[in-house]
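In response to a reviewer's request, we include the raw inputs and outputs for one of the modeled complexes. The two entities were modeled together in a single run.
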Amino acid sequence: MHFMNPVPVMKLVEVIRGRETSDDTVKRTVAIVQALGKTADVVNDSPGFVSNRVLMPMINEAIFCVDEGVATAEAVDQVMSSA
Amino acid sequence: MNHPLGPLALADLIGLDVCLAIMKVLQDGLDAHKYRPAPLLEKWSPTDSSAGNPAGGSMSTATDIREQVVELAREFAKEKIEPFAAEWDRTSHFPRDVVNELGKLGFLGMCTPEEYDGMALDTVTYLMVLEEISAADAALAVSVGIHNAIPTTMLVKHGTPEQRERWLKPMARGEILAGFALSEPEAGSDAASLRSQATKDGKNWVLTARRRGPRTRARPIS
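The model returned the following structure tokens for the whole complex.
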């Protein structure tokens, strides 16, 4: 189970299916996530899973933006957040 | 992601060093240049020259010593922890006698330098031991992990010689179980946002803090 930061706010939990993970284990893990009041998404094992593979390059690119003077850190955050 | 935070605020929350480490995992694991960390991310990330061991001790542990230590932890966890863990959970019991035994075996001084009666293990061995204890009782493993990592590391890295002499040896031998008074109402478990302050008032230190109950309470265990 891979929880997202900040954990109390984020509903999503990635459930990672490894090469040897049985369907029963996946089913029970998803049930645990749901019992916690969160939403489960099942993904296969790979570096960074899905969340970090997509999120980290975005953070990385945001840092490039600040470094290259495209925008201030505050502006980058405001453009990209839902707040 | 419909995330409440922008990417940079989120990076701060996650920790820039963690972001950098994940980028390196992506770059190595997927073998792709597009995942190269931004130079500014490398510059911003706190670097630690003593990264081999959380307390700044040895850089690596010999394979045979690692196997022996992990095997000892596995056997101890199987015999003395696992059969009782569910009952401890049910009755909210903290097994200080078991912690005491772990201390006698050296497991409360895993990262402590040898001169302070510690085992000076490397991070990998230390984590493998924690994995064995976690498999038997995750809650107990947290107490052991906090003691070994946070208070021990702080004393090794930032303590005065007198503080190290006074605290590290009894901590490494398990005579004292150390905790980390972390939680504040506004900061939760985010240590970087803590607002507690210690100021010197003449001879005394005045501690200004608001707290929730810390997760581990320090108490003598011998």
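As requested, we also summarize the result in words. Residues 51-67 of chain A form the longest helix (17 residues). The interface with chain B takes residues 5-6, 9-10, 46-48, 51-64, 66-67, 73, 76-83 of chain A (CB under 8 Å).
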